[in-house]
# Entry
Amino acid sequence: MLAMTVTGCGFVGMSDDGGSEKGKVSKVSLQVAAEEADGIMLATVTSVKPELNWVHYAPTDEGCDSYTIDGKATGSATRRVAVMTIVSQERRGSLLGVIERHWKGEGYKITGVNRSKIFPAIYASTPEDFRLVAKVGKKGQFFFGITTPCFILSKVEDPKTTPNGTPFEGSVVPDPYVRSDFWSATTSIPSTSPTR
# Structure
């Protein structure tokens, strides 16, 4: 984890994250923070067994308005993952439960839960105030995202972590197409819905 030198700044978060709070910043570059986010994301998706087929998509970074650290401009980076595994309606709650337990096991705080039957989601934050989301989109597709707090602005490269899915071209995320004997099954299994 990053060694944090806390000075405080307004958090630039993902939409629908249950409200933003004052974040934490460190005197490291945004690239270093993005690499930390990549590691957290990789640990999240690989915590799921049986494994999910997943790909990176649409990494972004943006400035934190006028906030500076030692006179230097700051920015926030967001990393995103799309799951190509078909997750049946009967198994979506179980998958969200797996993610919730992993995040709690890592010491992350669950900051919000969307209990929609169609588009459920769970939100969390790390002790360093990286904000995470796992959510269900159209056709039951799972998406994961993580947004960093404000760090010293720098050039940010695309994620170097290697997905196990086939990268796609263009800006439109393909629908899930990889069948799983477990996650695509239409029988329900005992599970606990995400809770605070």
Observations:
- The longest strand covers residues 72-83.
- Confidence is low (pLDDT under 50) at residues 3-25.
- Residues 113 and 122 are 5 Å apart (CA to CA).
